[in-house]
Write a structure and sequence with these properties.
mainly alpha, 144 residues
């Protein structure tokens, strides 16, 4: 199943899927920035972690528009976890000291609870991706 195609990923051209994925990425970045602006503490931190993985999922779909929801979610989760484990090295902390962008993208300090919240984001992204795909498939085929 794909982002706008339900079970038949050939039914919608990749350009429309990419457009939807770009829109989802934009909304996700806005949600993350909005969350940081209005929330503090755990809600801001862990909500941001989940949204980070949702953003990665949208970017996976943008690059590979016919990817299945499960593959997109697993890929986003793998990258999120990879970045988190990379924080065990001094490299990300050093980059974060020199660049706000690096700090936002790579973080600086390993935090085990982040791993759980990345999984929450991957699950939420998978559910949304699947639901949108199913809705698009029903719209195309009409009521049964």
């Amino acid at each position: 199943m794909s982002l706008l195609t339900g079970t038949d990923s050939r039914a919608v051209e990749p350009a429309r899927i990419r457009l939807a994925a770009a829109g989802a990425a934009t909304v996700t970045v806005g949600a993350g920035l909005g969350l940081r602006a209005v929330a503090t503490g755990g809600l801001a931190k862990y909500g941001g972690d989940a949204l980070y993985t949702v953003l990665l999922l949208a970017l996976v779909v943008l690059v590979a528009p016919r990817v299945t929801p499960l593959t997109a979610a697993a890929s986003a989760l793998a990258v999120s976890w990879g970045v988190e484990f990379l924080q065990l090295s001094e490299m990300t902390a050093e980059l974060s000291r020199h660049s706000a962008v690096s700090r936002l993208v790579l973080g600086s300090t390993f935090n085990p609870p982040d791993l759980f919240w990345y999984a929450v984001g991957a699950t939420a992204g998978w559910l949304i991706h699947t639901a949108v795909g199913s809705y698009a498939a029903r719209r195309r085929t009409g009521p049964r």
